[in-house]
Amino acid sequence: MKRPDPQQNGGEAFVNCDGTVAEAPRLKKIQFADQKLEFNKRPTKIGRRSLSRSISQSSTDSYSSAASYTDSSDDETSPRDKQQKNSKGNADFCIKNIKQADFGRREIEIAEQEMPALMALRKRAQGEKPLAGAKIVGCTHITAQTAVLMETLSALGAQCRWAACNIYSTQNEVAAALAEGVFAWKGESEDDFWWCIDRCVNVEGWQPNMILDDGGDLTHWIYKKYPNMFKKIKGIVEESVTGVHRLYQLSKAGKLCVPAMNVNDSVTKQKFDNLYCCRESILDGLKRTTDVMFGGKQVVVCGYGEVGKGCSAALKAMGSIVYVTEIDPICALQACMDGFRLVKLNEVIRQVDIVITCTGILESKCLKVDIHLPPFQASLRTPELTWERVRSQVDHVIWPDGKRIVLLAEGRLLNLSCSTVPTFVLSITATTQALALIELYNAPEGRYKQDVYLLPKKMDEYVASLHLPTFDAHLTELSDEQAKYLGLNKNGPFKPNYYRSASA
Amino acid sequence: MKRPDPQQNGGEAFVNCDGTVAEAPRLKKIQFADQKLEFNKRPTKIGRRSLSRSISQSSTDSYSSAASYTDSSDDETSPRDKQQKNSKGNADFCIKNIKQADFGRREIEIAEQEMPALMALRKRAQGEKPLAGAKIVGCTHITAQTAVLMETLSALGAQCRWAACNIYSTQNEVAAALAEGVFAWKGESEDDFWWCIDRCVNVEGWQPNMILDDGGDLTHWIYKKYPNMFKKIKGIVEESVTGVHRLYQLSKAGKLCVPAMNVNDSVTKQKFDNLYCCRESILDGLKRTTDVMFGGKQVVVCGYGEVGKGCSAALKAMGSIVYVTEIDPICALQACMDGFRLVKLNEVIRQVDIVITCTGILESKCLKVDIHLPPFQASLRTPELTWERVRSQVDHVIWPDGKRIVLLAEGRLLNLSCSTVPTFVLSITATTQALALIELYNAPEGRYKQDVYLLPKKMDEYVASLHLPTFDAHLTELSDEQAKYLGLNKNGPFKPNYYRSASA
Amino acid sequence: MKRPDPQQNGGEAFVNCDGTVAEAPRLKKIQFADQKLEFNKRPTKIGRRSLSRSISQSSTDSYSSAASYTDSSDDETSPRDKQQKNSKGNADFCIKNIKQADFGRREIEIAEQEMPALMALRKRAQGEKPLAGAKIVGCTHITAQTAVLMETLSALGAQCRWAACNIYSTQNEVAAALAEGVFAWKGESEDDFWWCIDRCVNVEGWQPNMILDDGGDLTHWIYKKYPNMFKKIKGIVEESVTGVHRLYQLSKAGKLCVPAMNVNDSVTKQKFDNLYCCRESILDGLKRTTDVMFGGKQVVVCGYGEVGKGCSAALKAMGSIVYVTEIDPICALQACMDGFRLVKLNEVIRQVDIVITCTGILESKCLKVDIHLPPFQASLRTPELTWERVRSQVDHVIWPDGKRIVLLAEGRLLNLSCSTVPTFVLSITATTQALALIELYNAPEGRYKQDVYLLPKKMDEYVASLHLPTFDAHLTELSDEQAKYLGLNKNGPFKPNYYRSASA
Amino acid sequence: MKRPDPQQNGGEAFVNCDGTVAEAPRLKKIQFADQKLEFNKRPTKIGRRSLSRSISQSSTDSYSSAASYTDSSDDETSPRDKQQKNSKGNADFCIKNIKQADFGRREIEIAEQEMPALMALRKRAQGEKPLAGAKIVGCTHITAQTAVLMETLSALGAQCRWAACNIYSTQNEVAAALAEGVFAWKGESEDDFWWCIDRCVNVEGWQPNMILDDGGDLTHWIYKKYPNMFKKIKGIVEESVTGVHRLYQLSKAGKLCVPAMNVNDSVTKQKFDNLYCCRESILDGLKRTTDVMFGGKQVVVCGYGEVGKGCSAALKAMGSIVYVTEIDPICALQACMDGFRLVKLNEVIRQVDIVITCTGILESKCLKVDIHLPPFQASLRTPELTWERVRSQVDHVIWPDGKRIVLLAEGRLLNLSCSTVPTFVLSITATTQALALIELYNAPEGRYKQDVYLLPKKMDEYVASLHLPTFDAHLTELSDEQAKYLGLNKNGPFKPNYYRSASA
Description:
The structure is a homotetramer of 504-residue chains.
Chain A: E1 13-15, E2 21-23, H1 48-57, H2 63-69, H3 101-113, H4 116-124, E3 135-140, H5 144-155, E4 159-164, H6 172-178, E5 182-183, H7 190-201, E6 210-213, H8 217-225, E7 235-238, H9 241-252, E8 260-262, H10 267-290, E9 298-302, H11 306-317, E10 321-325, H12 329-337, E11 341-342, H13 345-348, E12 354-357, H14 374-380, E13 386-391, E14 394-398, E15 404-408, H15 414-417, H16 423-442, E16 452-454, H17 457-467, H18 480-486
Parallel strand pairs in A: 3-4, 3-6, 4-5, 6-7, 7-8, 8-16, 9-10, 9-12, 10-11
Antiparallel strand pairs in A: 1-2, 13-14, 14-15
Cofactor (chains A, B, C, D): NAD(+)
Region (Disordered) (chains A, B, C, D): 38-91
Pfam family, one (chains A, B, C, D): AdoHcyase_NAD
């Protein structure tokens, strides 16, 4: 059967699960290049620009911290042209330099110390192998933390092949330490990017039955190239906002062929990615870029969701005077009760020292520390205002009267561009991914349909419980009498499904 | 048709909406007297004990603050035996002493200042009367704050008749200021209680079409005595945990005859009743009862829901060292990230100075500052331990080695027993009630079925927005461009329905 | 020798230590009646007004908490006309009603639990009696906490006679429990006041050799009536700002006959009286009087000394938006760094909900939570503004546009008028007093001259150390090596004398 | 006159002010090499090791931030061998590369924005030139911030010659921008170091009359080489703990020839160097070195002085569980009241994740964030414990059971080694230095003797006031009436001299 050329018919097309072709639904048009959500864009058109978008949209990128370890070595030979073997003589991989394996192993070991939950899963795996028989193809950032995940999946019985979801974020030394089944390096070309993915999917004697994706590119590739593969695939686990959005679109359009697990929106992950992580990274990012003293500074935080709450609390604790803007009256009232003056941006813009935007930019409420709510950023690009680049990632925007504000990361995400994400936060994500894979792989026929699911509450609780020992935290167990009194199962879940959270 | 006597058949029976009788479902048996949830219990059996339960279960009781204003006057004549007229010559009421009307008016005026949202609704009512034609029968605590609500409902076009939902909580002077249509006084007998309700419901020339209930007793009475009335009733607005629980039971059993609005679980109300209010009342309650210095004290907070979060944060801010216990790993992990040692109670019970329990005691997640998780309280009643009453509402429990803990309110709710609820919190509740009444009364046929509903998100946002001016808070309005970009309506709701909060 | 009549020569006179008379120095004229510092004012002129000043100027008055326990019993007989004996048959006292002794004992026992340092001193006293032979005459508030001090002094070997320093503050039941040597009751007349003091000083067979004073009235009385007594007196311990001020005046004038210890200004006491105590009492006082919700309220705190720091921190923690005013640039800069907008009062007066003044009113830096910086209070008494009394101790001051502020305690000290002082704070004071008495009584000839001294640093540290066990706090001891390295004595003092604190 | 050779007499000698020689006092022997205080050590013996000590002892080193801007350029020619001229044709300087002047000017301009007080002094200098005629020789770190100071001194009328107080800390581009009179570069040899100082002091036609020193090396050099110069010198301004210590030693020994101003111990500087700066730098330093997540981490802070208070508060605010150790009971009690468990190190060492020592190591109470209280560090060097270097400046110390702690900077100061000092903090220091120079230079004969002085309170207040506009902070001015009432001068000082701070 001839596959249609989407470009020819001037629109977008989709290969359905059964191999037939359908007109793709018109996705909402989003204007700004680096947030493009076009799922159907032809691979060959994806240039550096749109690939690097992944850096900002994957919520737990460790790009900047990685940067410090990975040499931009002088070896200019493409990995695709190299013949390398690992210490076991295996050559089924494509990475930058196998000699960095020992250095990479050291990084992985450090990461292991802050990823207690995965290590606990490994211990349990000595008895049971819940992923025995699983053939996982993964496409994520390739960092020390991912390595701990991959090696945990192996310990649980799975076979894995892995590509990078971003052309810049690979820690080469980590890729070298993993080697077998890994196809990734820092600085891939566009063509390399898809070549690596293809090498993970389409290799003789290998039929993947699980997908772990971050951004949806891997899922996309299989949809485009190997739709029949979905017949053997038990499920997709997707972590990014973008990828999840794509899956919901597929589901709405009736084109989702297998169950998919949205691990982005699990309670635990959300709290860590947003509130807890940003509470620390806002300080870190500002300090590393500007050495600013927080005490006494006037700051306006735009948006009082979880990210805004974290940023506001941290800066207040450091002695800044924080103003908040909001559009949602409920969040606005919370800001008031938490002790922040609720203002409109224009009321304070001339008096504040720092502006931080923590506004949602996608329908799916991707709350982020960014600085690029477009209408606002645009409003700073006026003849009245002077822009001055003071350091890498730091601009001053100067009013005629000399008052200036600090603009960081030129509109990219501060917490990813200018600070690092603690391993412990990535541990939450990785554990959630591992459990989602286990759940989908072992779920009895019929439990999950061709739809997008949230991780079951109980597994979310399990992720949390696996991280408690790190803090030497002792969970209380209900007595039989108490459980009965409360009408709860002693092992959870502890919140009823109809429980409506009061957080927003 | 003869109505069966529930007592005769030794069980519980229910009059269905159509007037037929059915065996009532066996409600879950709950052991502790003051939390009994038996909806069908016969009125005549409801003694002081079970009536006073309402005090602890209505979430916004102002009993203790009321206490200081209401004289326990020496006038022993029952209000039922008195002939009183208000200044307009009206005698359709039954209250303690009409002479207290001026004093009560003063209290109402003070309350008005802290209930800006209701006052705003009144202003709007000069143009439109959204409750024109409404005949509301209410059964709530009768306090200055309730009075502001009642008079707002009148301003919106409604006629009201009102009884007290609790035999002790009525502020007599406020009842005097209201007078017309009010049947309530402090210290009602059991018989008085139901007599007052009946006088609100069953009076010549009056057919109520809306119910505002707090605890479910009014609803119960109409179910038992006047089931046919439901034919003209447009809906029930219920505020208490207990009453909401009863409504869900009725709904499950297929016996709910009219739409009901659960205003207890609206986001705004929950945040105020639990987090914001308890953050202040824990300090207030402890200080008023014990004059304890918080600085340096070791405290264990049992439960880290919204109430536990508020209590822990407040005490930490005052220099206490706070430990937390939890059964839910997600809440437990939050406690860790917020800087609290997660322990089991027995690990710290001998070293802490204060124990605060903030545990849920009902399936519907009634989070409260209480001290009476029964198995725990029981565990303090051992021969090893000595109890010493040091002041009203304050007991010391003393270990053999002389270490002691302070036990407050003997198991009743600290925030209601030992501190006051700020009017502003009650304003949130009252506004939510008013909007729920408006919504149910004006909803087009078919919008609501015979089920229990939460207040629509948008109205919840409206309640919040009406309270922002108090804080001189300026909400940002989306531009058309921004709204389009975000895919939101400029007027809300601002969170999609499938938004899953990360709070627990 | 004839003593001059101060009134006759129209001025003030002083009896010198040797019995001669000198013209008194003109004291600085202070305008406001209730802060008059006239040391030499004739007793007979001291009316209720000027006596009650002591209530506000003694920094650790427990008047308001006392109020709740002491019956204003119907027994109108003056204690001076009663014949009472305690259970041992002793009649050398004059108190309201000996039958209240058991109730008073209970109160004393409760206080003992929060005064660990004094109890520790008692334990040590089983071996040594550092006050053996001491004959102490005291004049302080007579409360449960003072009783613990008095009985500790007795346990240390002293004999005591005691009068009240304030005509209203005596807890009658505590006086009854103490009985022997106590001359005090609630509601003394002016004449009673001096009669009681005289009975403590001038009784056959009793020659006091130590003075413990609070306000200077006792010292004054001896100066006036029995100047020769000073020949046998080893020293004066004075606690109040007023009394200390008087002593410094005497010292400057060369009229101080004995060493005096200023215990008001010891580091530990200052921190507790100001920062730690006010941090809690500002919340307590505001809540008890107004039930105000702190969250979201705008507050201006005038003065950013220790009291202002405590108030600001507490309110910020509760979600208030706090502005600060200051005259001292160093304190002002601290406010900025701590995250408070520094403003002038007139810039925010119309927008804030609450004004709290924490300004010094005496040269000796008596920092207080007050509301009566006179020029400010006066500025609120204009025809433009309406005052409305809403409750006891609560006034609303209303601007023409309806904006209003809450004025508490009409200019008296909020923390003393509207909240209680925790026993633990009083414990710090009482221990400091006890140690000062021990130091002065046992000091070798020549260590102290006829001057005013601060408690030696080392003893201040000792007061602190005696309170650590309450918190189960474990102090680190320097090893010999470390002490040598640091050039410190292992037992302190730990701060050199020339250490200049950075606090202001 | 022949100058004695200190080495010859085998001991230490001193040239007295009058040119005679005296035996030097034996300084207290301090064991640890990098804290040696030997004032008299011969220059030629000062190797890299002891020079680099200055890095850690100067309290406001900007070394690490400087590092990122200064190229370790490939130009290996010694500046001493270069012929360079600035744009004005002047060649009286010795710096690395005059071509970097523009880059350096940019850095200076950025610094100017955060040093408002110096810029304000410049503005005033348009009218008056308080340093007209001053010939200042300086020896400090040469950074952008110092440049702002130097150019301010010039604007005030002074002539300046400047050397670096540290062989590594010079920002070459800043030195290039200053050029005239500057003798300094990054990476000086020992010989270069003294050569540069000498070039500042001893040049034809130049007789310095003021000294600005940081560490005492310049002062030392003049004492050794040109003692007669002191006859024309009006005073010394010294900033470092070490230098101040040396001056006090000289003063005690009667060898101080001119007045000296200790600017290290001014209130404002202390608060900023310790509390406010460390509150931020502890987070910054930990994050940059370890990317650790603060939330939930257990931390022990050793020492609860200003530095310990800042660190503890910051970590608590970020969700860490903080324990404190102390030797001083007063500070210990403060820790308790602030909500920290007071423990001994050995009680928690195995359970905590991070140990931070903030202990004094010098008599003069130099509080620092360090990790090298020697007995403690030594106790970690046992066979039981494994040390693992994980990154630059980061070691893990591992217990046999696998528990590990993070050790940073191997015992050097975390806040200087691993984070930067905000320009605003350096602004406080620089302004204090400028005012001290003005004061000493203009003081009338006799105001200052040959002794070490603290900056007058009023000037300290002035430093603070000059920094308030940065925060748009509005200081309140006393009215005449208020000032009179309070007995204060309207312009300060606002705290009496006998005011005893309560901070420790």
